[in-house]
Amino acid sequence: MTTKGARNMDALRRKIDALKETMAREKVAAMLFYSSGQLSMLEVNAVLWLSGVTPMGPNTAVLLRPSGEATMIISLPWDEGRVREQTWIEEIRVADNFVGEIGNLIAKHGIGGEIGVAGYNFMPAAVCQALEALPNVRLKPADALLNSLARFPGAEALPALERCAAIADAGFAAIVEKAKVGMFEYELAAEMEYAMRSRGAEDNFGMLTASDHSHCAHPPQDRKIQPGDIIIAEITPSLEGHFIQLCRTAVVGTPSPLLREKFASVEEALAKSLDKVRPGAKVGEISQAMNQVFTAYGYEKYCRPPYMRVRGHGLGLLSIPFAEIVDENETVIEAGTMFVVHPNQYIPETGYLMLGDTVWVEENGYRRLTQTPMKLFSIEN
């Protein structure tokens, strides 16, 4: 196993050992890690998680054998050099016929029986059908196995998570600093993007709007910012495959007494929900705490679709363990997991208001990764 492209060899060895144990326990002949090349904050990218790189192109896979040896199959020859520099995997094949190359590898190594497929849920139907037609093998969806392994990255992930959180903080700081009356929403979004990209963000799932946000946030519009606008921002940069999310609200000018009053309900909902973030508690308790606050303020009707969908969720490589924070989720919170908590809420008098932070669960509670003050911001210019 080469050290090239591996940021932490001890963590990589633990990962491979865990996969070898998983293959033996599940009685699978090999594991295939698949990616369409897209990076999403709401799913574990199987290839990135294992290899440390996201190759370009429509189809990528890593075939991992019980010995721990791996072969990567990529689609684009001009991306091969970059991939080799960034991954620990030594055998990389560029394939015109993606499924055919996987079939060649299966035959070469005498693999037969069930193959666990991580990334199965995101595999195009045509690719899945072609793989299922290969002789002597059967596909076994393994997304749940991957999610269970990916949910506990260990303390070695914290430096990257903290850097990514600082990038998210910088993105919102740019909004407060750069927003001006007369500026187009997309111009302000560009300032936010620049602040994060210039600090190393690899990607960003961002929504920023000052225009109609009656039910939710949406991408920036071709509209000029006006005095009194309420700007809501959901900022989700990524670094090394990890995503961090920050949700905040700012008003252009001095907040009205009405806005301060209504935003106080959001602040209270976040504070009370964070009190529920601890090992042993159930995920649904976080959502229930928020909804109890909003119900007490008379907004019970707006605590369900179409006004509200979830009260938080997993993120990036650490996503999926409990996916969505909703009342019904019985999953028990465990130390070493990470997720975003956001009581983002439609309030009829003000529209949609946002406030949320990414937290890392520790043995005795949680750590906020983002450091932006949890308050309503005022933009004066």
Notable characteristics:
381 residues, alpha+beta, Creatine Amidinohydrolase, Chain A, domain 1, Creatine Amidinohydrolase, 2 domains, 6-stranded mixed β-sheet, 4-stranded mixed β-sheet, 10 helices, 21% strand
Tell me what you see in this structure:
With about 375 residues, this protein is α+β, with helices and mostly antiparallel strands. The protein folds into two domains: about 10-150, Creatinase/prolidase N-terminal domain (Creatine Amidinohydrolase, Chain A, domain 1); about 155-380, Alpha-Beta Complex (Creatine Amidinohydrolase), CATH 3.90.230. It is built from ten helices and 19 strands. Strands 4-3-2-1-5-6 form a six-stranded mixed sheet, sandwiched between helices. Strands 8-9-12-19 form a four-stranded mixed sheet, covered by helices on one side.
